[in-house]
Amino acid sequence: MLVAGGTVVDQGGSRRADVLVKGEVVAEVGEGRALRAPAGADVLDASGCVVAPGLVDLHAHLREPGAEEAESIETGARAAALGGYTAVVAMPNTSPPADSAAVVRQVLQLAKGASCDVRPAGTITLGREGRVLSPMAELAALGVTLFTDDGTGVQDPGLMRRAMEYASVLGGVIADHCEDAYLVGAGVVNEGAVSSALGLPGRPAVAEEVMVLRDLALARLTGARLHLLHLSAAASVAAVRAATASGVQVTAEATPHHLALTQEWLAGYSTAFKVNPPLRTSADMMALRQGLSDGTIDVIATDHAPHPPEAKETSMCEAAPGMVGLETALAVSMTVLLDPPGSLSSPGRDNEAGQEHWTGLPLERLLAAMSWLPAKIAGLSALHGGPVAPGAPANLCVVDPARKWVVRPEKLASRSHNTPFAGQELTGKVRHTLLAGEPVVVAEEAQR
């Protein structure tokens, strides 16, 4: 297969190159010159497009086993492929949770033949109840590299210390949902002006900050590798920046929705914008963007969280938190983060505040945050994240950076359609995705 006419962007930079794929690997990269397609080879048109290593998502909820009405591994993987992902890490808050070898094996079995490489994370504690550690060594023996109780933070600092010590021995990463449950209480949206105006209980940013500070201290003590999930607050970014400078082994992620949206989007009382941690202020959003720009935040992760309609079509206090994101993550990120930065259409909402100081990211930095850096954190660099070079696995995505498209929830491949970006015009669309040399997405389907 020949991927022809594109510009390759990977760790080595950007260059005009055709890419010839044979079997599961890249056979030849014609830098600055056109390659001739061998007899009988298929040709994928990449004219005007970027050819990059496939994207890698560290944080996706695929719901199976137990909540297949919201998503299955098959449908989630299909959505991921359409979004340019060749690998996703499936969060373990399923039913039953991935706290045993049996459940991890089940996820791996269900993922065979899927449209992208699905790697299960394991829980930190049994049942995600925060009381007893999971059998981390058994899970690691099956290939689990990330351990998390995502959805809830581990409230017991002594237990978290032991988890970090075990993970260090196993070569794993502790990925933490940083929210202090006692400070969160019954909060549903960011504590502040909007929560007061809507008459809703607030979820304060300090609930995230105090657990970030706690776990950074524990990582310093134990020498463990710590990954902080879906940061949302400016104070958290500052804490990670200081810890990184002092040598703590910490990486962090932000989501497209926290990088693109603020609490003002909740003014219409739409549960599509309810998420944990909540959308916060413009100052928080800009701090996340700056953290991404200077490397304090390493990764953009989707926190893809599908829910059936009945879970969202209720009151704000009762609605399930979260939103789908695998098909929109790259386009949302390209729309609001690339240099020059754009914005979303939001009449009457304060989505522009503070953006006069935002100069945008280069494409290489954006792709690093969505491809080779998450691959490295998850221990997947041997298969995913590039570089695009002879002998490398042919896990690739081809992206049209100029393609504009409108998000239509009913057309998303995910089994659930709870997106806050419905009706938004985005810039940037995946044209092709190759998994192990096979085109799992081609232009006609990607641009439906």
What does this protein structure show overall?
29% of the residues lie in helices and 21% in strands. It is an alpha/beta fold and 448 residues long. It has a single domain (54-385), classed as TIM Barrel (Alpha-Beta Barrel), CATH 3.20.20. Strands 1, 2, 3, 4, 5, 6, 17, 18 and 19 form a 9-stranded mixed sheet that branches. Residues 347-353 have low confidence and may be disordered.
Share of β-strand residues:
15-25%
Counting structural domains, the number is 1
- Our measurement of the CA-to-CA distance between the termini, rounded to an integer number of angstroms, reads 23 Å
State mean pLDDT (0 to 100 scale).
Answer: 95
CATH-defined architecture: Alpha-Beta Barrel
Radius of gyration: 21 Å
Q: Could you tell me the number of beta strands?
A: 19
Superfamily at the CATH H level? Metal-dependent hydrolases
CATH class designation:
Alpha Beta
Regions with little confidence, pLDDT below 50 for 5+ residues:
347-353
Query: Quick one: biggest sheet?
Result: 9 strands, mixed
Proportion of residues in helical segments: 25-40%
Structural class: alpha/beta
CATH topology: TIM Barrel
Shape: globular
H/I helix tally: 15
